Amino acid sequence: MLNINRKLAKLESEGSYIRVGLVGAGQMGRGMISQIESMKGMRVVITADLAIENITNAYKHAGVAVTEIVCTNDIKEASAAVQANKVVATTDMKLVTSLHEVDVVVDATGVPNIGAEIAWDTILNRKHIVMLNVEADVTVGPLLKKMADASGVVYTGSAGDEPGAIMELYDFADAMGFEIVALGKGKNNPLNLEANPTTAEAEAKAKGSSPKMLASFQDGTKTMVEMNAVANATGFLPDQPGMHGFEGTVQDLPGIFLEKEKGGKLNGRRIVDFVNGVAPGVFAIIASDKQEVNAEMKYLKMGDGPNYVLFRPYHLTSLETPLSIAKAYFDKEATIAPYFGLQGETVTVAKKDLEAGEHLDTIGGYTVYGKLLKATEAKQQNALPLGLVDSNVILKRPIKKGEIITYADIEQTKESTIWKLRSIQDRMF
């Protein structure tokens, strides 16, 4: 089996390349376009965004000549442009998902409802879909995967995203027969459940990022969603609602992730969690019941046991997405997918006291944050999945700060695509 770099080089030497369609020319999408332009055997042939200048600037910064960029919403013009080895900028995301010349579609919007719609349309058009949209994945991913499997295409999360990086450690350890005790990630900033775009504005401006996106990291929502994706992919569960969020260094991890009766901090094994102090890395805690294996691990300076840590100190976000594109195209395999169905649920929690009649906003906003529960716990509480929250959701009663919002607490002014897909998923599973 050739490695991806050799497969891509071979494809290019044959005068061909993987034709990628991208939806979303924000920070993630722009970086991905530039990275792919540096690669052999792959090109982003069409990109959709509401702001056409975001796309043209992304292509220009990637080294694509202005004369090679065709701006159009017409499918015949787009098709002719791609066949002429030009690239297309469009405001119509359905042009990306339906264009015959596209092999693999990437969703880099970060908006759950739009991501669900992109994945649905892509699979209906029998193309592989790579999700840089974990929020959509944890909400309707099990349904989308089942649909993709039936259609003979790949539904996958992205390499470089923390769930994908964790999954690589999991697959590595699982293939060798290690017991995997825990899977986790470092959190980049202190947990602030009250963070919102206003409180995050100054830091976001300094970093050149979106205040809303930064707030979703600070209030813990992004971490909950990411570990939710890992739970659905592996069957591992949060050890307690919201996970522990331990403090520690990489060297501390093997001792932290022991059961309490053994001097550690866990209630059980096969768990997902996050740790303050090891960011931006991801980790797997592994163990073995074999004397010779433990002796070898000690000799290799992996520690004295009984637990050992596999630690990856980086994840390159959308710059690694091309690896998932290539894996789907060449090997028909996912980097990470909800193999175990809905194991976890990131539920909706009030960020402040909320009034009856109030519209909820979205992830990283002012009204709600996410908390990871076991899916069984969420179902028992009739908890509202965070991925279903948008401005069409209105509260029917006052909700206190820190309270979980349930389906019974809300009504909709309009049913979105992700709500429809979630309804189908709940009936199917």
UniProtKB/TrEMBL annotation:
GO function term, MF aspect, one: NADP binding
Alphabetical list of SUPFAM superfamilies matching this protein: NAD(P)-binding Rossmann-fold domains (SSF51735)
InterPro entries on file: Asp/hSer_DH_NAD-bd, DRL_cat, NAD(P)-bd_dom_sf, SAF
SAF domain span: 345-411
CDD domains referenced in this protein's UniProt entry, alphabetically: SAF_DH_OX_like (cd11616)
Name under which the protein is recorded: SAF domain-containing protein
Organism: Ornithinibacillus bavariensis
